[in-house]
């Protein structure tokens, strides 16, 4: 149980998202450009939303894969395909209700955007009295 941040800023690692891949002209090009831009100690994570994209990422030896909007069944297949060659991070459609099934797939990390984009607001007021 429990949770913690695994990223604190944009400089912690390179996260290549779908728009980066599109702008670079493909997965290989995006990863090659990222590797050329950062030192060898900086980890590279690639967002994938299909098993075919995952296979490309693994062939290019990324450090981590962000498995985006995959069903628990597909996540399980992805984890088996990765077989320890990269860190696996599940993201998308994660809620308190879906998290247990996602955790059961064996992914290394679960990103829960629900915590921030769906959290209720706290109504705080401040009154000054002269």
Task: State the main characteristics.
5 strands, alpha/beta, five-stranded parallel β-sheet, globular, 130 residues, single chain
How would you concisely characterize the structure shown here?
This protein has helices at 18-24, 27-37, 51-59, 72-82, 99-103, 114-117; strands spanning 14-16, 44-48, 64-68, 87-91, 109-110.
Can you describe this structure?
With 130 residues, this protein is of the alpha/beta class. The chain has a single domain, classed as Aldolase class I (TIM Barrel, Alpha-Beta Barrel), CATH 3.20.20. Helix content is 36%, strand content 15%. It has helices spanning 18-24, 27-37, 51-59, 72-82, 99-103, 114-117, and strands at 14-16, 44-48, 64-68, 87-91, 109-110. Strands 1-2-3-4-5 form a 5-stranded parallel beta sheet. α5 (99-103) links the parallel β4 (87-91) and β5. The longest helix has 11 residues, at 27-37. The chain is globular. The N and C termini lie far apart (48 Å).
Radius of gyration: 18 Å
Largest beta sheet: strand ordering: 1-2-3-4-5
CATH fold-level assignment: TIM Barrel
Unreliable stretches: none
CATH structural architecture: Alpha-Beta Barrel
Order of SSEs:
EHHEHEHEHEH
Strand content: 15-25%
| Quaternary structure classification | single chain
What is the global morphology? globular
Could you name the CATH class? Answer: Alpha Beta
Q: List how many beta strands DSSP finds.
A: 5
> How many structural units, i.e. domains?
1
How would a crystallographer describe the biggest sheet? 5 strands, parallel
- Average of per-residue pLDDT values: 93
> Ends: how far apart?
48 Å
Helix/sheet category:
alpha/beta
Quickly count the helices: 6
